[in-house]
UniProtKB/TrEMBL annotation:
The record marks D173 as: Important for catalytic activity and substrate specificity. The gene is pfp. Catalyzes the phosphorylation of D-fructose 6-phosphate, the first committing step of glycolysis. Uses inorganic phosphate (PPi) as phosphoryl donor instead of ATP like common ATP-dependent phosphofructokinases (ATP-PFKs), which renders the reaction reversible, and can thus function both in glycolysis and gluconeogenesis. Consistently, PPi-PFK can replace the enzymes of both the forward (ATP-PFK) and reverse (fructose-bisphosphatase (FBPase)) reactions. Mg(2+) binds at D172. GO terms for molecular function: 6-phosphofructokinase activity; ATP binding; diphosphate-fructose-6-phosphate 1-phosphotransferase activity; metal ion binding. It catalyses: beta-D-fructose 6-phosphate + diphosphate = beta-D-fructose 1,6-bisphosphate + phosphate + H(+). This is Pyrophosphate--fructose 6-phosphate 1-phosphotransferase. It comes from the Bacteria. GO terms for biological process: fructose 6-phosphate metabolic process; response to glucose. Non-allosteric. It comes from Dysgonomonas macrotermitis.
Length: 548
């Protein structure tokens, strides 16, 4: 491939990792674990992989040379910066255990395992992709691994290639599937280990053992650069309110981190909306009030950050969407057969009275977007709901009403943006390059230790990389039971923004000042080179969470 000057320079970057991983390692086992909730149900579903201990790798003087161990790797779900470095870390880690071991990449996600589409990843190929963004080394996909037929079909190719371990790099749903696969292969004594790696720019796959999911740092830096550029334009032209929707399927971690980095005039946190039981009109009134207050000071411009998943956190909307999801899970074909101009009335007729009234009150466009095809997990695709346009329009209408009543005399013009795909394949920041490589190398150490049903864990990441702690956490430890496609299923619990957590508290303590003033911060592009305090910085969220 033709390389840019930055790619050529980045190819030479040597990722930093925990010092325990540089030589032979031994495993320290912690106490037995249990699932985060629904312990009896989860234990019943995972009798072979439930209750395993947390693991920590420490330096060892014993030289280990394991037998040849072929490893398969799958990139699952949406792209996140640093995926290539995870694979490079697995490759280097496996080779350090036995130089004759091989790594095979299954093409275009979990579907490649089922369809037996794969490629051996040699050092020549791996070296082309070190420290680069994207998942293009083997591609990614959203096929869900969940049926016995799929597991057995996958096992055929794993046996043929003599693959003894499979690493699934993905988010909460992909790692849930990895855990189900690990349980099945253990139950039938298939001789295949399954290890997960925590990936998602949304930042919602985390707990005390998984400090952050990879890609979140880089994506937030990309979005914050562009938000800063818009804020500067906003402060230069002084005539627009910019409504900026940010990727984040459920949790508001991206919106919060970008607010901490750029200090916009207004930022909605979905989790707070739900906690306060706010309606759509409540949110619109709050934004309109901020617009009016700035206008009173002669500032007819500003920036509003909106999390992608907002609509599902407005309690009344959440109840409506839940009923819609359940209804469409069982009547999708019937709904598809209804004529286009009758779909709205068809939905209204089939909803409970209260939800039908809410649905009927929505603008035509938003109502239609709520009934579009579900994602593979049966959920509404929130990225297709143009919340930024909806809020800009409703705020404009509210201000027009206030103007008529003599309560507002400013000017209001809006611009709308959605930043999503722009951040998913960026070249990883130094933090993500280091973190991802360490996650991959840790996954190799877990494989070398004979483990299955574990997720690679690297902690203490606000410290210099040599002080990071590598280990593994049982995936069952993160699970609870949730309703999916109308049925209760075991899934990894999403980590939402904690309203009593340090990042949100810091934001809440400063937002009133940011709302009336123009306190914008312009972070600029990701710094790959330079002093460590500039180029190796983790997210503000992580630093506040760790009390740094």
């Amino acid at each position: 491939m033709t390389k840019s000057a930055l790619q050529v320079a980045r190819a030479a970057y040597k990722p930093k990792m925990p010092k325990a991983l540089y030589g032979s390692v031994k495993v320290e086992e912690g106490a037995a674990t249990q699932s985060i909730a629904d312990q009896e149900e989860v234990k019943k579903l995972f009798p072979n992989t439930y209750g395993m201990p947390i693991l920590k790798f420490v330096e060892s003087s014993e030289k280990v040379n394991l037998p040849v161990m072929n490893v398969g790797v799958i990139l699952s779900g949406g792209q996140a910066p640093g995926g290539h470095n995870v694979i490079a870390g697995i490759f280097d880690g496996i080779k350090s255990l036995n130089k004759d071991s091989k790594i095979y990449g299954f093409l275009m996600g979990p579907g490649g395992l089922i369809d037996h589409k794969y490629q051996e990843l040699t050092s020549d190929i791996i070296d082309e992709y070190r420290n680069t963004g994207g998942f293009d080394i083997i591609g990614s996909g959203r096929t869900k691994l969940e049926t016995k037929e799929q597991f057995d079909k996958g096992l055929e190719i794993l046996k043929k290639l003599d693959i003894k371990a499979l690493v699934i790099i993905g988010g909460d749903d992909s790692n849930t599937n990895a855990c189900v696969l690990a349980e099945y292969y253990k139950a039938i004594n298939a001789g295949v280990q399954v290890i997960g790696c925590p990936k998602t720019i949304d930042g919602d796959l985390k707990n005390e053992m998984i400090e952050t999911s990879f890609g979140f740092d880089t994506a937030c830096k990309v979005y914050s650069e562009v938000i800063g550029n818009i804020e500067r334009d906003c402060n230069s032209a002084r005539k627009y309110w910019h409504f900026i929707k940010l990727m984040g399927r459920s949790a508001s971690h991206i919106a919060l981190e970008c607010a901490l980095q750029t200090q916009p005039n207004f930022c909605i946190i979905s989790e707070e909306v739900e906690a306060k039981n706010q309606s759509l009109d409540d949110i619109v009134t709050e934004i309109a009030t901020a617009v009016a207050n700035r206008a009173a000071n002669g500032n007819n411009f500003g920036t509003v950050l909106i999390p992608e998943g907002l609509i599902e956190f407005i309690p009344a909307m959440k109840i409506l969407i839940s009923e819609l999801n359940d209804f469409l899970a069982h009547h999708q074909d019937e709904f598809n057969a209804v004529a286009k101009d009758e779909k709205r009335q068809y939905i209204i007729r089939n909803l409970s009275e209260k939800n039908a009234a809410i649905y009927e009150s929505l603008p035509e466009g938003v109502a239609r977007q709520l009934t579009l095809d579900r994602d593979p997990h049966g959920n509404v695709q929130v990225s297709l709901i143009e919340t930024e346009k909806l809020l800009a329009e409703m705020v404009g209408n509210k201000l027009a009403e206030w103007k008529k009543a003599g309560k507002y005399s400013g000017k209001f013009a809006s611009q709308v943006h959605f930043f999503g795909y722009e951040g998913r394949c960026a070249a990883p920041s130094n933090y993500d390059a280091d973190y991802c490589y360490s996650l991959g190398y840790t996954a190799a150490a877990l494989i070398g230790s004979g483990k299955t049903g574990y997720m690679s864990s690297v902690r203490n990441t606000t410290a210099p990389a040599d002080q990071w702690i590598a280990g593994g956490v049982p995936v069952t430890m993160m699970m609870n039971m949730e309703r999916r496609h109308g049925e209760m299923k075991p899934v990894i619990q999403k980590a939402l923004v904690k309203l009593d957590g340090a990042p949100f508290k810091f934001f809440a303590a400063n937002r009133e000042k940011w709302a009336v003033g123009t306190e914008y911060v312009y972070p600029g592009p990701i710094q790959y080179f330079g002093p460590s305090e500039v180029s190796d910085q983790p997210t503000v969220t992580l630093k506040l969470e760790q009390g740094k």
